[in-house]
Design brief:
204 residues, mainly alpha, 2 domains, three-stranded antiparallel beta sheet, two-stranded parallel ribbon, 43% helix
Length: 204
């Protein structure tokens, strides 16, 4: 995991393997709830314990989960934990299907994320509401410029994403940052490069 966010790097085979709703659900549950077993995960991921175990072994083949060495009180159950802070993949221009399939699977699994946030935001303190919002900004850039922008964003995120729990400020809380980079088909150039498509720090 040679990246600043401690993410598992997926190749095309790994992306294809993860593009499955049960596997995405397993990984999400392990990241949210910590180490678990196939039997414990099964009710939450919509599969039987044996099928869940099969999916866990496939995730392990691609470095996304591993055996958890913790003391779980004995017994014969196999405990698993997620590897790294997350995962990353690219859409290979020579072989785009695996990356696109995983992108679509993630979108399907997280489709209600924003709606769920909207349903709970009324309980947020005013200072958290003040920093919540969305960005929808259209720019004209080259692929190299977008890659440089992604690198700069990651450099800013890395210290916060990898900060140990013991070093977090007392008023730190979990914040989900969603990033979509969506090149548009065709040239929608309006002449001056400035678009009326900016919506920053607006509560949806």
């Amino acid at each position: 995991m040679a990246n600043r966010l401690n993410d598992v790097e997926l190749d095309a085979r790994g992306a294809r393997a993860l593009a499955h709703p049960v596997r995405l659900a397993i990984l999400a549950n392990l990241r949210a709830g910590g180490p678990s077993t196939a039997s414990r995960l099964a009710p939450d991921v919509g599969a039987s314990p044996s099928v869940t175990s099969w999916h866990l072994r496939h995730l392990a083949e691609h470095g996304l989960v591993e055996d958890d060495p913790g003391d779980h009180g004995g017994g014969r159950s196999r405990w698993w934990r997620a590897v790294g802070s997350g995962f990353r993949f690219q859409v290979d221009p020579e072989n785009p299907e695996p990356g696109l399939a995983l992108s679509d699977a993630i979108e399907a699994s997280e489709g209600g994320l924003v709606e769920r946030w909207r349903s709970t935001r009324s309980s947020l303190a005013p200072e958290w509401l003040a920093v919540s919002g969305r960005y929808n900004t259209l720019i004209h850039a080259t692929p190299d410029e977008i890659a440089a922008l992604e690198d700069a964003i990651e450099e800013l995120l890395a210290p916060l994403a990898r900060r140990p729990a013991a070093e977090r400020p007392a008023n730190a809380g979990p914040v989900r940052i969603l990033r979509y980079t969506m090149p548009e088909a065709g040239d929608d150039d309006h002449g001056d490069g400035h678009e009326n498509d900016h919506d920053k720090h607006g509560s949806d």
